[in-house]
Amino acid sequence: MHENRTVYPKRKAQMYQQLQELPKKYKVIALVKMNKVRSTQILPLRKILKGDVEFVSIKDKVAQKAFENLDIPGIKDIVKELTEQCMFIFTNMSPFKLNVLLAKNKIMMAARGGDIASIDIVVPAKNTGIAPGPMLTEFKEAGIPTKIDQGTIWIAKDSTPVLKGQAINEKLASILGKLDIKPVEAGISLYSALEDGLTYAADEMVIDVEKI
Asked: Do 21 and 84 sit in the same domain of this protein?
């Protein structure tokens, strides 16, 4: 006979414990939906905001369980919005300031097939260091002129295979990755936040960082 109880792996149990303790330590709980966020976006932010915020990435079911008995005004509003993988940011700065900091600390990332270019993608003329072979065809299909010299593929001249706002196909994304070209600007934005019992939606926390 099996007992009807929830047993979490050690790592998940630690995060569960954090979600019970951190809301009592910080005055702001911010929620980020992780469906369009990559782990490589979070690592730089952890360093930049170290000491001011704490991040916890966890599944919605575990978070719901951790929050369900907390006596914190407004916490149930956050619980209602939890779906799939999510991340919580705990801090004592205002949700507005936090959102501005996140907006100002976007990073350039490698592209995946289907991503939209954040900039005009310029592939400079140079020695790629890649041996001739199937890659020659991939460069040609991507519209990047090449030549073979000294036993490697050279890009014959500067080319712009994709303009800002256009989609990047899988083959081009693969080429850009090999050339260490990162054409996708990525950042994290808050889905909602709780401060002093008040819940703020994403559009209520948006501030034009260009005017600051």
From this structure: yes
